[in-house]
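Lab notebook page, bench 4
Experiment: in silico fold of construct C2
Operator: M.H.
Input chain length: 450 residues
Purpose: comparison with the prior construct
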Amino acid sequence: MHIIIVGDGKVGYTLAEYLSKEDHDVTLVDRNQQALDKATETLDVMGVKGNGANVRTLLEAGADEADILIAVTTHDETNMVCCLAAKQLGAKYTIARIRDPEYTESISLLQNGMGIDLVVNPERASAMEISRLLRFPFATNIEAFAHGRVEMVEFKAMEGDPIVNTPIRSLPGRIPRVLYCVVQRDHDTFIPNGDTIIRPGDRVHVAADLITITQFFKYMGKNTQKVRSAMLLGGGHIAFYLAKIIAGMGIRLSIVELKPETCAMLSEMLDEVTVIQGDGTDQELLDSENMRDMGALICLTGRDEENLITGLYGAKCGVGKVIVKVNRLNYMDVMHDMGIDSVVSPKLTTANLILRSVRARSRSQDSVLEKVYRILGGEVEVCEFTALEGAPFLNVPLSQLSIAPGVLVAVLVRGKKIIIPFGNDHIESGDTVILVSRASKIVTLEDAFR
């Protein structure tokens, strides 16, 4: 497909990197020639210098024949105008990044009136991710599938856990039956099989329905006490959205923000939230505000290094749950190695959301892509498909299908039934099929079956 990305910042570059690897015809539009030169030298993309809201620039980029235009500049208004102009020129599908909370309430009106097919709000999506981690503090990451009926949970295996040092196929039958989807050991990531032995320190992803996954962690002894208080460092959009989301969760929330004007705005807009004006990296301030007694510390400043250092300090002080936001994806593994388990990246969240939409527009007669979720720094993808009538792989036992190497059929959802599949199970028309694979390996469901 011909895809135009307006805005060659961190998000735009990441999208161009992912989409160009999937053999799409990608054109980047930006005013900064230096940024365009870097992208065109390192990626298989074209660059057009200019204002993406200008019709002449859009025509030069080929917007009149574009399959998708993605506007991810730093200005919401520019993104909206880009989509409006591109749609008028003939672009088939438009995606806009809109971050300002003031636009949230009128998103539907903006989409209908300006020809925006999809609105992506990275900060709100990141806030949703953080809220799930606060509900289940024992988990490193949580992602929901099949309209929330299936969850994939990442956790760190510890010495003494009943699942370690035993082949998966030999685990006691009293352990609730979940699917072991992905294991990361040191810097090696692999999809386990029945002979895999989970070791202490492994990062493990398991999937099941909500009741089973809850019983599994209860059996493991990881279903610990809920978070009752949290401190947020940084009063940006993520902090605002998160405060709104967890308002009804019974969590006492404090926000530390350096800018006085931002503090005043947050105090006015957020009820029952304590807003503290000060430097969130100042250890004396954190100690005076009783950070050690908090159930969670969430570092959301604009600098990755400050978030890392403060997160490490919180972990050292014994805070039960530490969550750190990063912009640079290559920092994620470093943070895990240093003891910060829960890392949130708005950039990766944006890529997940947009990749899902782009792939869903790829033509397939046998399936519909519902969701794409990248884990472990983008090395592994979890894809949710709906199988369609007439597909050649329907009603055939999985043991008789030639499943592509490195692909795992993780979960089947059939009506109200959640199935952890084995060799005798099969896919039926209308089933939700959740696959785990190496990144960019699976674009359509038929790619999984040779």
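Observations: The domain at 230-320 is CATH 3.40.50.720 (Rossmann fold). The mean pLDDT is 88.
Next step: discuss at group meeting.
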